[in-house]
């Protein structure tokens, strides 16, 4: 003879009129295969958040541009080059990279940069860096890639001798 155990839960409540009553509810028990306690499935809402990914990094942290006086042309122009890389990762579409410097270049000098395209994008070629952002790469869409940064410093005979620095800021943003 099999024994069936039925577990009950009792809740004692007092109604608004002061009447005392109890509610008895059967509890599920593994020995009770059917009945009001059987609930073989249930659902749960799963909230998913995928953030915007929009990341741009440059390497190395600094580059050096030094014009060698032995390389000056007959017209008094000199130049220097340096390279770096940038890495972009985004899950967004139709982004662009702009570039600017924090302070205007000294008289008689120009700083130019070229960013190569990452897969699926277009480089806009060599651009002069000023304190106003210029577009350098466009059409960046859902990519995780690396490109090159090329700098060209040009100076004329009117440039005063100096040692100075500029901070180049690159920004990825919507087109």
Question: What does this protein look like?
Answer:
The protein folds into two domains: 1-42, no CATH class; 54-174, Sandwich (Immunoglobulin-like), CATH 2.60.40. Helix content is 0%, strand content 46%. The protein contains no helices and eleven strands. The protein starts with 6 loop residues before the first strand and ends with a strand. Residues 4-10 have low confidence and may be disordered.
Brief rundown of the structure:
0% of the residues lie in helices and 46% in strands. The chain is an all-beta fold.
Biggest β-sheet description? 5 strands, antiparallel
Radius of gyration: 35 Å
Strand order of the largest sheet: 3-4-10-6-8
As residue ranges, the low-confidence spans are: 4-10
CATH class wording of the largest domain = Mainly Beta
**Helical percentage:** under 10%
Q: What is the SS-derived class?
A: mainly beta
* CATH architecture grouping of the largest domain: Sandwich
Cα(first) to Cα(last) distance is 79 Å
Task: Report the portion of residues in β strands.
Answer: over 45%
What does the average pLDDT come to? 85
Number of strands: 11
Count of discrete structural domains: 2
Say what the CATH topology of the largest domain is. Answer: Immunoglobulin-like
Compressed to H and E, one letter per element, the order equals EEEEEEEEEEE
Total of helices: 0
Overall form? elongated
């Amino acid at each position: 003879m099999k024994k069936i155990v039925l577990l009950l839960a009792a809740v004692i409540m007092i109604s608004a009129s002061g009447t005392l009553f109890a509610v008895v509810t059967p509890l599920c028990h593994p020995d009770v295969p059917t009945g009001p306690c059987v609930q073989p499935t249930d659902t749960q809402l799963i909230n998913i958040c995928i953030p915007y990914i929009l990341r741009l990094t440059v390497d190395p942290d600094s580059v050096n541009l030094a014009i060698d006086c032995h390389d000056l042309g007959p017209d008094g122009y000199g130049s220097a080059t340096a390279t770096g890389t940038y890495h972009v990762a985004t899950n967004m579409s139709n982004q662009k990279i702009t570039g600017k410097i924090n302070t205007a270049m000294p008289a008689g000098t120009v700083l130019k940069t070229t960013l190569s395209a990452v897969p699926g994008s277009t480089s806009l070629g060599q651009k002069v860096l000023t304190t106003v952002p210029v577009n350098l790469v466009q059409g960046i869409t859902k990519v995780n890639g690396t490109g090159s940064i090329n700098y060209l410093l040009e100076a004329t005979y009117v440039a005063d001798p100096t040692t100075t620095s500029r901070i180049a800021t690159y920004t990825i943003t919507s087109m």
